[in-house]
Amino acid sequence: MKALANDPLDIVITGVGGQGNVLASQVLGRALLQAGYTVTVGETYGLSQRGGAVMSQVRVTAGAALGPLIPENRATAIVSLEPLEALRVLGQYGHPGVVVLTNDRPLMPLNVLTGQDKYPAPGELKAALEGLCAKLYWLPATEAAFALGAPILANVIMLGALLGSGLVPLGPEELEAELGGLFPEKKMAANRQALARGMELAAQCLGTQ
Amino acid sequence: MADLTKLKAGELALLQGNEAIARGALEAGLSLAAAYPGNPSSEILESLADSAASAGIYVEWSANEKVALESAAAASFTGLRAMASMKQNGVNVAQDFICNLTISGTQGGIVLITADDPSGISSTNEEDARFIARLADLPLLEPSTPAECLAMVKFAFDLSEAIGNLVVLRSLSRLSHTRAGVVPGPLPTGRPQPFWDPKQIWNTVPVVPRHQAMKDKLAKAGQIMAQSGFNAYSGPESPDLLVIASGSSALYAAEAAGLLGVDRRVGLLKLGCTWPLDQALLRKHLADSERVLFAEEVDPFIETEVKALYAQQAAELGIKQFFGKASGHLPQIGELTPGRLAGAMAAILGLTWQPAEPQYLQAARETISRLVPFREFGFCPGCPHRASYWAIKQALSLDGRQGVVSGDIGCYTLGVHSTGFRRVNSVHCMGSGLGISSGLGKLKSLGFQQPVVGVVGDSTFFHAALPGLVNARWNQADYLLIVLDNSATAMTGFQPHPGTGQTASGQPGTAVDVEQVCRALGIDCQVVDPYDLAAAQQAVYQAVQGEPGLKVLIFRRLCALVQGRQGGHPYRMRVDQSLCRGDECGCHRFCSRAFRCPGLNFDQAAGRAVIDEVVCVGCGVCAQICPAGAIRAEAKEAAA
Amino acid sequence: MTQSPAAGQPAAASLERLKAQVLEAGLCVACGACVGLCPYVIFHDGQVAAPDVCGLEDGRCIDVCPQAPVPDPSQKRAGLLQALGRPQALPLGPLREVWWARALCPDQQGRVQYGGVVSTLVALALQEGLIGEAVLTQAGPEGAPEGVRARTRQEVLAAAGSIYAAGGALSALNQALAEASDHALGLVGLPCQALAAASLAAHPRHAQGARLKLVIGLFCTLNLSARGLRGVLQAAGVRGPLTRSDFPPPPAGVLEVTTAQGTTAIPLEEVRPVVLKGCALCPDLSAELADISVGAAEGRPGWNTILVRSEQGQRLLDLARAQGLLELTEMPGESRQHLSTAAANKRARAAQAWKERADG
Fold first, then answer.
1. Which domains does chain B have, with CATH numbers?
2. Of residues B209 and A114, which shows the higher confidence score?
């Protein structure tokens, strides 16, 4: 089995119900399994389609199978489809060395819609994330997905960004192959573009450091 | 889901625990599978349904879990292998049958899968269904990984046939919904011819000798299970701490020992066969260890039984220290995690465990509590339940007699939250809302003056609500039942149910119509579209204000997610911000504050409502609540 | 919740106060003043309800409610009269002229009450352009009254006839005021509604309030809950829509209701339980904040009493007289004395009720 730079490689994928994070974790998990690693993908769903916070965990090792839960505050990276959820997850899985990749598009919790709670200002949220991780990728994934024609592509853009960050031992072809198993060919062009766009966004983010 | 027969034997695949259970059953020669949907168990039957045609098996969504197990038992009586799968709550529904089936015994291998939900991630409770094995003297298997799911299911069928009784396999949310590498085995060819020898009677009398036979079967199962290899020890011969663990907890315990760097001091006895317990194995490991920690979810099932076993042999085994739920080292509630296990081990071994630097944890806690608002569950954009509860809220408020609403199990259970305007006053188990309504509806004679409304989903209506409804009709209970008919078992993933007229494998069945059932019971029944807020409100108001008696309203509107798959909703919503009254007196953000649809936002900068186009599906309902006519529903084609 | 009050403090938000102090206290008289101002307050079948939390601390709803607690209710009335340029005069309120009258309009036979004076005046006000639209009360689909808007004589006649039940008519006024129009509006309303309408018109944050140019007040001693009345009628075996209802003057001791089937007299004891509790707080027999008030002519069936209170009211009456629409005769001194005594008695009872409310 191939050795990993970080073993175990523990990735939290979080967001809000309906954003497609379960799909993202499956695609990532399958590709890593094909690449020869031992993979465990823990998914939390059920009620999660109903607008609550949801989380998947992708655990990768060159050794024996791991349990479905990443140990508290030991994630390698957090990929979040919604910026508030990235911050929420840091309490449970963060540590000074964690890398955070987040979509910058907020989805308002119900109590924010009603004016009972406040959603932090973008700058405030970004600063808070930066203060709690080693490296923040603050990415306009939804905006980029709109440009590609469908906001739901934000999850694939975030997967592309994860590739671009160099944290996972995979290339785009390997993710494309797994996406191809899930989507009909007519939808694959958009998915390929989304992966490439995500990689670009991550590269831009690295460039600004 | 996908057709599991297409997996190649010997080729590694990333399978969900539930898929591995289903594949294991197929490899074991399953002929019939039946289930009622419920997270985290649903994908077991879904993947079998997708495999049914190619595997040549019969797969059924049953009306409830008891019927599912009864169907499976029927197949077993004819010599076929059968499986019923359910969540922990479903075991309660099936329990009466289980406790009789175990006396009658079975023929073809029959396995009951219970997928428990520690922490109640998608459940109304976190009940530990393992106690059914203890209660009904049934063998119990607890896999830890998807690979074990597959292997143990195959073993379970053989075991069931060997002893002539039902075998229970217990999964967990974190296992059923975990994907990991599994190597499938070969699928069988050929199938036995089902036959029920007319001389054979499957019943439970005479009870006492049959009860003895049941005990004997369990003892025999214990002997077979001891040879299964599913109980395994790893660690030093005489560990400083012995951890006895099952399910996911065994993996957490192993990882926790690694995190603490005490792998060489801690022994892990991983039990896959947890009832009956392997007494000889436990005796051996208790003899070798002074300190024992139990790691299991949710109740101290193994912990209690091992302590009882120890009590009988304490003189030989000497003094031991037991740690776990009873000692407070692990919580009695909620699921376990690697960190919780590390904390418990550290406390026992006199070490310290910090998941991260204290300053970091402190800073994270402080930042999150300052900046991160709670994200409450909510109905999906376009969900008919939001409209239904809106109408119920308005009508009961106008009625003014403090009406109460008893709820039931489904997406609409969220009526207890703000997304349903906290309009639901009670929720317990499948169908119980109708029984509670029926009881309340008879309290008038004792001075209860509040109107009574019950809400039930269409799937739940057929599952367990009918007896409550018959009872109410028979005893002339005075209440309004609202059937929230979204033509889907939406909560668990849109499985068909009797009302949809489709079977598990997508074939046409016979649709059972809620309306006709009610009318056959002689109940006044009216169908209303909840998207028409005024009509729905008026229907509820008139029903609670009208003559006393049992009435049924069917709020019929397709689940918004299903609608989304079937071409979507018709509108593109837009807010005319020149008309919007914003937060002035005269509106004060009524749409976002009161209606609480995630697709309807408030533009702080403009001080006006705004549609979130990423979220809004275009159902058009919110246009009805805007006092200024500022929310516009435009036909999607025209707007595009 | 950001606006939730500190523990033990009374709610600061206007709607929440209105809910606690009026709606849930059972003191709402369903005038409709708070209905239609905003979507938080709903009205149906004679009931006012507020299912959702608004939280606004300076909402208008409680300001315009005639039943909301105020330190001195008579001072509030005097203040509103002063703003209208009419000094308070007890016991009957500002008076310019007092008459007995009946309409001379033949096509109102049977549908109108006490000589059809109100319908005649409203139709005339529309015809002469004093107002562009009138807000009236009419039975809704479930029999309970509700506000309606009339622009034509036919629409006015359709709404003719008293309905002794709480009607929420001011919601229709609020609705009309919320529209981007500038025509003058008229209102036919009970004393509580005349008071609330004056509050609405004078409210500093009700920009269009000044469009209310004519209030025709109706005498009122008490009002009934719409749902309660329905129950009383059902119990009395009265079926079908009411064409007329009336409390004949003492000593009749009945409520007379007329349907297509005929007239039924229901004893007052059966009606009393459905009298709105909030009516006990009303000191006003004759709608003293109206431009012109109309009520029964005691002992003279088929005739009305008319009290002219303002310049606008005078103008309308003068027009009616000039066009020969009304027959007027002088109100006998004895009858006027009775009316004054009744008004003074109502005022005294209300003063006692306010005191009891303040004392808790």
1. 4-226 (3.40.50.970), 233-349 (3.40.50.920), 384-565 (3.40.50.970), 571-639 (3.30.70.20)
2. B209
